[in-house]
Amino acid sequence: MTGTNGRPGAGASGEAVRADTVGAVVRQWRAVRPDLDTGPMEIIGRVNRCAALLQQAEDAPLRRAGLSRPEFDLLGALRRTGHELTPGELARETFSSGAAVTKRLKQLTERGLVERRGDVRDRRVAHVRLTDAGRELVDGLLPDQLAYESAVLSGLGAAEQGELAGLLGDLLTQLEGRLGGLRS
């Protein structure tokens, strides 16, 4: 069996298929469909597997604070922008649906972490801001969360992390620019 560069077992990058779970899937596909280029699977499959593992682990500091990642993302959006946002703006900032934002805002309001106020000109519009407790929670959690994320990435050196961040940034830029066209 040959890879895309003609070398046995080589993937799209010309390297041997790695010994991770996606590598095993790729080897199985190559055994039954050697005519297909499985190179994209090596990248997309690994990105998806990494995302799944990170979601399974959940973020330890957030979990200890009783927050989910999506809830923290809402609080973080309010903190980093430094001003009130509408639920629609929060949905865009956090890549969430409006319904999901509404549900999370209800929970965060009940916990006293955010406040909603109606717009004086348009009653249909709400503005959301952090309470002092919400701001303190975000400011207290962020250093621990960043330390946790650093520990997760500690198997990669600084140069590798920089390279990976750059490559993922390039991919994300492409996807954000073209994904709408790919869905149709």
Automatic annotation (TrEMBL):
Residues 18-173 form the HTH marR-type domain. Keywords: DNA-binding, Transcription, Transcription regulation. It comes from the Bacteria. InterPro entries: HTH_MarR-typ, WH-like_DNA-bd_sf, WH_DNA-bd_sf. It holds the Pfam family MarR_2. This is MarR family transcriptional regulator. The lineage of its organism: Bacteria, Bacillati, Actinomycetota, Actinomycetes, Kitasatosporales.
